[in-house]
Amino acid sequence: MNKTIISWLQVLPMATILIAFVGIPLATVVSLSFWTFDGLEYYPDFTFENYTKVFSSWVTWKIFFNTIRYAVITWAIALVIGFTVSYYLVFHVRNLKIQIALFLLCTIPFWTSTVIRMISWIPFLGREGLFNNALMSAGFVDQPLEFLLFSDFAVILTYVNLFTLFMIVPIFNAMVKINPNVIEAALDAGASQIQILWNVIIPLTRTGIALGTIFVMTLVMGDFFIVRVMSGGQSTSVVSAMKNNIDQLFYPQAAAMAVLLIAVVVFMVSAILRVVDVRAELAK
Amino acid sequence: MQKSKKSLGVTRRSALKQIGASASLAGASTVLGAPMIWAQTIKDVTLLHLGPSYSAFPDMAAKASEDLGFKVEVQNAWTDGIMARVVNQPDTLDIADLEFWATQRVWRRGNLQNLDISRISNWEEIVPMFRDGKNFDGSQMSTQGTLPYEVQYVDSEGGFASGATGEATIVPTIYNADTLGIRPDLIGRELNSWAELLNPEFAGKTALINVPQIGIMDAAMAIEARGDLTYGDKGNMTPEEIDKTIAILIDLKKAGHFRAFWSSFDESVNFMAGGEVVIQSMWSPAVTAVRSRGIDCEYRGLKEGYRGWGNGLGLMGHLEGVKRDAAYEYLNWTLSGEYGAFVARQGYYGTVPETTKAALSADEWDYWYEGKPAAIEIKDPFGGVMEQPGRVRDGGSFQQRVGNITAWNTLMDEGQYLVERWNEFVAS
Q: Measuring CA to CA, how many Å separate B16 from each of A8, A222, B111, B166, B424?
């Protein structure tokens, strides 16, 4: 009896925070998504109209596809970079001090704001930007490359630039925990470097990979600002479409889309957690 | 649903009437009350003016506070943000600085109060297009889009009156005639039509503003000029016209005609200054900002005319008593010259030319309003040098520019459909 009360009390602070800052706003969004809207005002109601509108429009499918495409491409690039960097730091840099110093180097870009790091790509990649000027004066091209800015390329480049660290940190963390004896044992048993990488290191870092994947995926899926600025408003993500709706006071439709996005993200995250039991692995 | 909407409408209207009644009572009591009490309390008033950065300025609020003896504060938001505040959090602001099409959109919510025109001392001096919808020569202004006059007056039912009445929705304060911004140095020839926005010659070097209500008008001006479509009313398209317009735009977008769509003032400046675009939707101060970097940028009049817009100040419904008196004083202050001169120096027009003229120097007036070559260095509102002597304002005089407005920023009957289709265009 007493124990039950104590555990309830222990749960209480976290539960209060979660209910106040996640539960209530989420419930508001969900209920708003069923309200009716007359172009200016919305009224309490229970209608599926907002959902019908969202589901029946090809735009919804297109922007979900587009957002997931951004997420997957960014994830793949971030994974390769993140894994390689962590591998180098953990297995090639023997000196602990240098290792820590190099790891901190990776975080230096985070000393400035995301917005500044994003915006600074624009004068670099633009038609009259530094990169194009350099290419042209070196004689590689005679017309400026236009795909560099206000394009999918620019959006993904920025995502990778901003989000790769979120892949590096968890993978690094998982790799450091690998007991060197395990690798030695594999070597003694005659495994090649590739076999060690594939059969020992990757399986043992999968928690890190899973966590990094969750970070990168949710960051990309939740973005509207980078896609708007770096695509020059030419491309739309789920959240930027939501923002357009909010700007026009179309709150119920935005809410319906938000609910749909939450469903998709929850599905993706739970799929990842199903493959990798992050909790059990972290407890090791 | 239809039913509950109606009943809501009735309650709103009767609520409005009640507010009106109690308001006039409060007004009476201040008139009858001792002026001493009034003088003591008005000093404690703080008014919050929520407006876009092109019309609500901290400098002007400070000047008004100094002149009026009570405190005026400004907060900046874009039109969408202001509409959201007026509709959803009406108590968080006192004075709403709204575009006319935005007024048309939010008025029926009933969160703004009717303005008593007899309390606006310079009302009769406001340029005629707002007061009676007439051009300088007495002819009817274009009604394509939201002509301010159409949503200027309130009728006895609380809706928009078709002619002048004693009550107004908002007091017009600032307006302009917009056209396309171009980079003459990169184009290398004369342009004189909106159709140039769609000219394949500029493929990949054009941009539109990403606000559906305004972007669609720029696009429609260009599409009509090119001869693809003739609209019944560009400012109030039928669903078929919206479909056709969006289809043309989607084709252009797929063919790579647009470099970008801008959502903020600085984006429009950077696109132009960075050479990303050579012709695009633009605002007058943005053109100025590009020029001030030493880059040639023009804001010429085109033969199909200008796209006009106007902003005005509305009083929120919760204002009463001394606070409302103060708000009226502030509205009157914005029409008294200082504010008009400030906005003139950034390339817009105040709505009362006489007081603006008095507040500007004669040389400034000649440059900004008369279209004469600058006799002196022309300075921006903050004192920075903008133009050298000899330069003539693009588009010429006040009458030439404003008189040639052929369409207005707009709220369409099919506004919701337009926004949905516009979002498709942007996502395509």
A: 51, 42, 9, 16, 38
Hey, CA dihedral for A126, A129, A134, A136, is it positive or negative? Answer: positive
Q: Cβ-count burial of B254 within 10 angstroms (0-12 exposed, 13-18 middle, 19+ buried)?
A: exposed
Question: Position A185: which residue type?
Answer: A
> What's the rounded Cα separation, in Å, for the pair A93 and B262?
47
Angle value at C-alpha B299, between B293 and B305, nearest 5 degrees: 170
pLDDT digits (tens, 9 = 90+) for B312-362: 999 999 999 999 999 999 999 999 999 999 999 989 999 999 999 999 999
Extract the runs of DSSP E, i.e. beta strands, from B161-201: 167-168, 171-178, 180-182
Cβ–Cβ gap B1/A45 under 8 Å: yes
Q: B159-208: per-residue pLDDT in tens?
A: 999 999 999 999 999 999 999 999 999 999 999 999 999 999 999 999 99
pLDDT-based confidence at B111, cuts 50/70/90?
very high
How many other β-carbons are positioned within 10 Å of the β-carbon of residue B190? 8
Say if A63 is an interface residue toward chain B (CB within 8 Å): yes
Closest chain B C-alpha to A73 CA, distance in angstroms: 19
A145-198: pLDDT as tens digits: 989 999 999 999 999 999 999 999 999 999 999 998 999 999 999 999 999 999
Query: Per the CB < 8 Å rule, is B415 touching A39?
Result: yes
A65's enclosing H/E stretch is helix A58-87
- Its ipTM equals 0.83
Q: What is the DSSP string of B237-303?
A: --HHHHHHHHHHHHHHHHTT-EEEEE-SHHHHHHHHHTTS-SEEE--HHHHHHHHTTT---B----T
